[in-house]
Amino acid sequence: MRTIPLSKPFFNGLEKKEVLKVLLSGKLVQGQQVARLENQFKKVTGAKFSIATNNGTSALHTALHSIGTKPGDEVITTPFTFIASANSILMVGAKPVFVDIEPDSLNIDPNLIENAITPKTKAIIVVNLFGQPANFHQINQIAKKHKLLVVEDSAQSIGAHYQGRRSGNLADVSCFSLYATKNVTSAEGGIITTNSESFFKKCVMFRQHGQLQNQTYDYLGLGYNYRMTDIQAAIGNVQMSKLAKITKLRQKIARLYNEGLSDINWIKTPVVVDESHVYHQYTIQVQPVGGINRDSLSTFLKKHGVQTKVFYPKPLFEFPHLSYRKPSQTEFPIARKIAKKVLSLPIYPSLKEVDVRYIVDKIHRYGR
Ligand SMILES: *Cc1c(COP(=O)(O)O)cnc(C)c1O
After folding, report:
1. Is the pTM above the cut of 0.85?
2. Is residue 183 lining ligand 1, measured as CB closer than 6 Å?
3. Which ligand 1 atom is nearest residue 177's CA?
4. Which residues are within 8 A (CB) of 290 and not within 5 positions of it... i.e. 6 or more apart?
5. How far apart are CA 325 and CA 125, in angstroms?
6. Whose CA is nearest to atom 14 of ligand 1?
7. Ligand 1 within 6 A of CB of 153
8. Which of 96, 102, 162, 349 lies at a CB distance of 3.0 to 4.6 Å from 86, suitable for a disulfide?
9. CB atoms within 10 A of CB 292
């Protein structure tokens, strides 16, 4: 029997070689490799400034601080995302306000945002879920009208584009994650990109104890230690040189799944609403009919060596620390419904075509 994991890093010998070089150089933190990685992100996103951090969560925390989010502020975001998107709001003492999602893109529904705006609203965190950009056209218009700032949670969307612009350059500040399972990894890591010099400077200080840039031991306010190591950056730099290939291979696997699953009427394959999807996850929706349901499909595939996972089993308002007010069962109908149907299938650049066919075949067998 085959064993097919959900994800797998895309390494060749180069990552190892570059990491060893860093170890031998003696310069382990915020050296040339980190500077190079920051430059690579500027190039890829087209943003003017870039700051490396130790992970994507600290990038979000830093970004929210840099735009001036304070205790008492409200920040609008989606309830259907990884928990870090919303936890970062609590980290600056603000309050998360959730807005339901669209049934196709699974991203925040821009038509519902204005209803959630109050005099306390400071910003919107927009997540490009599974690698597909949200409707930034409409969201940025709303933000402009109400003088709100927009933070792009681009943790899952490196390499994606939207109306001629790159993910990482769609909002006031953007945050990437380079976690082990992300499309591009440095094991752990984060990158902030922005076109604002003032946000950039605040990020640089916040990353290192509130220290003024280039002026050691002079502190302008509270900061943290969110620095990235050159060991991480060395891995990230090699990965970034493969970004185009990584994206192409993921999109090819998604196409194979789309074709293979198109005749199954109880499966909804991912809908590309706009022009771009980089498939951080390939996530199907399983419509329960007869004996068919998401959880038993997952168990069946596991028995055949195929790892799957539910991203995400619970909308975030169900977690008490994120929910200042328990929403009624009729609120957030889409997020509630989608959380019960989604199942993410294996996708990674080295996943073989025969393995995709094997998975598709097993799903057909399950349905019979
Ligand atoms: C991975 C991820 C994060 C957090 O990144 P870490 O590097 O794991 O801290 C934030 N938001 C989303 C949507 C993510 O997928």
Report:
1. yes
2. no
3. 7
4. none
5. 20
6. 155
7. yes
8. 96
9. 15
Indicate whether residue 77 lines ligand 1 (CB < 6 A).
Answer: no
Task: Compute the distance from residue 130 Cα to the ligand 1 centre, in Å.
Answer: 11
Q: Is 85 in the pocket of ligand 1 (CB under 6 A)?
A: yes
Cβ of residue 128 lying under 6 Å from some atom of ligand 1: no
Residue 48 has pLDDT above 90, yes or no: yes
Residue-wise pLDDT tens digits, 323-353: 988 899 999 999 999 999 999 999 999 999 9
| Listed residue (5, 3, 87) closest to 349, CA to CA | 5
Enumerate residues 6+ apart whose C-beta is below 8 A from 51: 38, 59, 62, 191, 192, 193, 200, 203, 204, 207
Mean pLDDT of 24-32: 93
The residue-averaged pLDDT of 17-28 equals 96
Tokens of 303: 């028995």
pLDDT at 217: 80
Distance 56 CA to ligand 1 centre (A): 5
Q: Which two tokens stand for residue 360?
A: 């598709």
What is the distance between the alpha carbons of residues 116 and 114, in angstroms, rounded to a whole number? 5
Tokens representing 30 are 């915020």
The amino acid present at 306, given as its one-letter code, is V
Ligand 1 pocket, residue 81 CB under 6 Å: yes
- The rounded Å distance from CA 177 to ligand 1 centre is 5
- Per-residue pLDDT at 304 exceeds 80: yes
Asked if residue 235 has its Cβ within 6 Å of ligand 1, the reply is: no
C-alpha distances out from residue 190 to 233, 315, 333, Å: 10, 24, 32
Number of H helices and E strands in the chain, helices first, is 12, 12
Ligand 1 pocket residue status of 55, Cβ below 6 Å: yes
Q: Report the nearest-CA residue for atom 6 of ligand 1.
A: 56
| Residue range 197-226: mean pLDDT, rounded | 91
Distance CA 75, CA 72 (A): 10
Q: How is residue 126 written in tokens?
A: 């927009």
pLDDT number for residue 216: 77
